[in-house]
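Table S2 (continued). Query chain:
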Amino acid sequence: MTYRTIELEIADGVAEIALNRPDRLNSFTGEMHGELRDALARVQAEPAVRCLLLTGRGRGFCAGQDLQDRAQTAAAGAPDLGDSLQQNYNPLIRTLTGLPLPVIAAVNGVAAGAGANIALACDIVLAARSASFVQAFCRLGLVPDSGGTWLLPHLGGRARAMGLAMLGDKLPAEQAAAWGMIWECLPDEALMPRARGLARHLATQPTAGLARIKQAINAAGSNSLDVQLDLERDLQRQAGRSADYREGVAAFLEKREPRFTGA
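Corresponding output:
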């Protein structure tokens, strides 16, 4: 299928999705939401895909919602922004965080509003040195959405979450990395080679095991230690019965590289 607002390429176990409205800093329209939903459904239905890489074309990752598109499509009177979240952004965040495979964000420029939080919701976030994260909602009298009010305090702590959300200041990629909110800040020219290399590496690893790691870490924020210990027990029981575990042990004993299949 050919898309107008995104690009999808699948090769070597990696699905790469690029937001592709560079003239509008890849801001979201209804059409883009629909195409991204379709692409993610294709990724989920393709057994060969073992890692997802999300990035943007042009000089920005994603500037959030395209306000012009919203103005053109809104009915008379105040728009129902809660419905927009319910229909579009919330399912997107739930899909990215629930995918049973690693999701890498390669933030190639400004990530603002929902765009910032979509990036931060990914499992591993790499950013170009020229990139930045902006919680622009306060400038419009809005609340950080797309998981922002959960992600910011979990990633940066309450004080930083409040400052970022209430002031709307630009957070440079280097500062985000220093604060531990993203995995790595890279020279601009090194971003995509690093992101693609990392995606190809993860696609060769025990995917089901990585999915269990993701499940456990995502659950930790709301679990007590006792509940988390039980979850670790249950997930480890599943992992110990997997083909990849047997292969990992065999490769270690035979002193060779493992050949994981994701099963």
